[in-house]
Amino acid sequence: MSTTTNVLMLIPAPLRRYTGGEAKVTASGATVAELIANLDSAYPGIRDRIVESDGQIRRFVNVFVNGNNVRKLDGAETAIKDGDEVGIVPAMAGGCR
Amino acid sequence: MRSLRLPAAMRDEIYAHGQEEFPRECMGMIGGIDGELVDLYRMVNTSQIDKAYADDPVENIDVGERMDERGQTPLVIYHSNPGAEAYFSPTDEQAAREGIWGPIVYIVASIKPGEAPYMKAFVIPDEDAPVESVEITIVS
User: Fold this and answer.
1) For B6-56, what is each residue's pLDDT tens digit?
2) Contact: B100, A95; criterion CB under 8 Å
3) Which of A51, B36, B38, B114 is deepest in the core (most CB within 10 A)?
4) Which of B66, B92, B100, B124 to mutate to test binding with chain A, by most A CBs within 10 Å of its CB?
5) How many CB atoms lie within 10 A of CB A22?
6) What is the number of helices (H) and of strands (E) in chain A?
7) CA-based nearest residue to A8, from A70, A92, A87
């Protein structure tokens, strides 16, 4: 599988403790899953905050590629191309039950 | 007990938001700098079911960008319990534990018709720690 480079990743505030405070980092990978794995090599621990142990994106996390939620695409297997912008977004939810 | 200094205007804004959305839950965030609460961001509740709240991730991104532009970090997530007491429900706790907000403060406001609203605040200080109450101090 070819490796994609120059993907800009937008890191939400709660995960910036892993990136030394950086809100934007670059990563490489041909899919969202690869990107996140490579991100974890640079910033250990961040992967587990984004995906489950089986590689699926966590229930209360959304991942956007160029403004499109990957849940509506191919999830963690969504393909990435050079120049894409990938955002990690923590979800907010709850209820009184 | 941990404490939160909440400006009176933000307290009133949360109550107003909860009353406007009644009988649905309202939701939003407060961004701050160095632990001081600066701006309140109302958000749209997209939950398809009553007695629950869920964000619109696109709006969530927008709010995050606005906080970044202002040098703020998210310090509070608030929501209302319409027709119910202010408490951190099992649903709230599960979402908080499965979510990735870390030790953010959750404000829950009780909104009941004909009764004075009130609020409580909670935090999960560490991943494996129990839910703790946070003392709210209203400041001008």
Assistant:
1) 999 999 999 999 999 999 999 999 999 999 999 999 999 999 998 999 999
2) no
3) A51
4) B100
5) 12
6) 2, 6
7) A87
